[in-house]
Design a protein that fits this description.
alpha/beta; Rossmann fold; 2 domains; six-stranded parallel sheet
Length: about 280
């Protein structure tokens, strides 16, 4: 027992630079060599998965990109996982952006998986791009999408795209999915488009935004929610395609373990040394 206490004391008194090095390695190694840690999906993530999985074959899904580079680590992995599930099940995806940066995020997401599914632009998916106006854009989609978007990101006329022929407004979509980091985003889709028109919707958002979106989820207006990095990792596990989010969760988890262990060692060292000093 005395030997164990001595070892713990030495660990608790280790140079802080060693701790920094260990924390750095605990983050770096899982990112270089991904580790599949056990992921247990929450009820909310499972609901999102079941909602997408339950869509009828060849459904039309509107995916709105409302995030940028600052929130990319949390939301982009869930965007890629969502697109994988949609294309794997043979659905058609209509992308748009309420944020200027959302256009670049959507383009990158499609580029990531385009070759994987041998997608044909204008037949399997279309990227309508960004329009300024916040909730006014959402209202425009709810009323007449072809008036709002006359051309798409590649400069093609909307009327010339085959998969746009039967799309008039939000009621023509089988599901709306909001990938949101704030305003405008999920709340605006609920308030001005999906709820008034009885169109099913789901969402993935940053961890900090969960509390303001959760009431809509609990009320049944949104079907499930992917909450930040953990939600993205859970979704990757549900679609059985481990990727960026699971790797980052492993790095985060290992770093937390290292930090907690050294906090414990430090506290044990402090109390043992104080007790020994009192006996002298």
């Amino acid at each position: 027992m005395e030997k164990l206490i001595t070892i713990i004391i030495k660990l608790g008194a280790v140079d802080r630079r060693v701790i920094f090095l260990l924390v750095g390695l605990s983050v770096l190694i899982p990112l270089i060599h991904p580790v599949n840690i056990p992921i247990r999906p929450t009820h909310q993530s499972q609901t999102v998965f079941d909602t997408v999985e339950g869509l009828a074959p060849n459904s039309d899904v509107l995916v709105s990109f409302e995030y940028g580079p600052s929130t990319k680590p949390e939301i982009h992995p869930m965007a890629v996982a969502l697109l994988r599930q949609l294309f794997r099940n043979g659905h058609k995806v209509y992308a748009m952006a309420l944020w200027p940066d959302g256009l670049f995020m959507s383009t990158e997401a499609f580029t990531t998986i385009e070759e994987e599914f041998l997608l044909t632009y204008g037949v399997d998916y279309v990227n309508l791009g960004f329009r300024p106006g916040n909730e006014a854009v959402v209202k425009g989609v709810a009323a007449d999408i072809k008036t709002l978007f006359t051309t798409e990101t590649r400069g093609l006329q909307i009327s010339s795209i085959p998969m746009m022929e039967h799309i008039t407004n939000v009621r023509d979509f089988d599901l709306v999915f909001s990938l949101s980091a704030g305003y405008p985003g999920t709340k605006e889709w609920v308030q001005f488009a999906c709820d008034p028109n009885n169109v099913p919707m789901s969402t993935g958002c940053t961890s900090i935004q969960v509390t303001e979106v959760l009431p809509y989820v609990e009320n049944g207006q949104i079907r499930g929610i992917l909450a930040g990095m953990p939600g993205a990792a859970e979704y990757e596990a549900l679609i059985e395609h481990p990727d960026e989010a699971i790797a980052k969760m492993a790095a985060q988890s290992f770093a937390h373990v290292i930090i907690v262990l050294f906090i414990i060692f430090g506290n044990i060292t402090y109390f043992v040394q104080r007790k020994r000093a009192q006996k002298r």
